[in-house]
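Board notes (copied after class):
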Amino acid sequence: MSNEDGQEKVDERPGHLIRRLQQISFAIFVDQARKFEITPVQFSAIFAIDNHPGIDQTALCNIIAFDRSTIGDVVTRLEKKRLIKRRSGSLDRRTKSLHITPRGRRLLRDIEPAVAATQRLILAPLKAGERSAFMRMLKQLVHLNNEHSRAPLRPKDARQRRARNAFVAQIERSEIRERKKG
């Protein structure tokens, strides 16, 4: 792990490798989903909004583990693309509930093969057994280090935990369907 000077090589540090894998994941998604003009974060947001109609931005942050300081920009971009609508909250007019539009639903339907291909391509260099082991360890690292995140997952109640679990399960089912196809 050390070079001649006794210093650890940057490309052997887990943080560096995780950052590089995130860059690679982003690049693959952008390439696969190019015609949809949507980022991975925007996809996660619209996916979560579709699965949880009427959620507010705080709940959205909790579901997709995104920080509150920048989620407003993501929501604004989705609204400008007419993929979602914001409506005043029924109990508190200051809050805005988020709803997917028919155009947003079409995008989710049409982008699914690109999303599945992205997941497949990220893991493609690994053998089947390595993919399972990698995913298991990755989930464990994320779970055990959740509290260190700028946007930790914080399900406030059982309903939010179920919502997050349903979101993860739906992504996993999509990946399984694509593996069966490929």
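Comment from the instructor: The domain at 38-181 is CATH 1.10.10.10 (Arc Repressor Mutant, subunit A). The two ends are 37 Å apart (CA to CA).
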